[in-house]
TrEMBL record:
Coiled-coil intervals: none
InterPro entries hit by this protein: NAD(P)-bd_dom_sf, SDR_fam
Keywords, alphabetical: Oxidoreductase
Originating species: Mycolicibacterium komossense
Family: Belongs to the short-chain dehydrogenases/reductases (SDR) family.
Protein's UniProt name: SDR family NAD(P)-dependent oxidoreductase
Length: 92
């Protein structure tokens, strides 16, 4: 039986530091779940670039969306080993 790959959810993964982290984790053999609040096209493109990756959109300011993000990630990948909370929010 082969060892299963570790799974990492990277919140805020479609630009900047989150993008670099997602790419680095994929290079190191992680299955990556890519997240963004609104950059859906970029998220889908990044997941395709990384290979065995998936994209999940969620608004982390919404409690139900946060819960769905984690639940969807586990449903997609079967487990969740690493969470990188790179998403930021602006407050007025």
């Amino acid at each position: 039986m082969s060892e299963s790959r570790r799974v990492a959810l990277v919140a805020g993964a479609t630009s900047g530091i989150g993008l670099a982290i997602a790419r680095r984790l994929a290079e190191r053999g992680y299955r990556v779940i890519v997240h963004s609040r609104s950059s859906t096209e970029a998220g889908i493109a990044l997941a395709a670039e990384l290979g065995d990756a998936s994209y999940v959109q969620a608004d982390l300011a919404d409690d139900a969306d946060r819960q769905r993000l984690v639940a969807d990630s586990i449903r997609i990948a079967g487990s969740l080993d690493v969470l990188v909370n790179n998403a930021g929010m602006r407050f007025a």
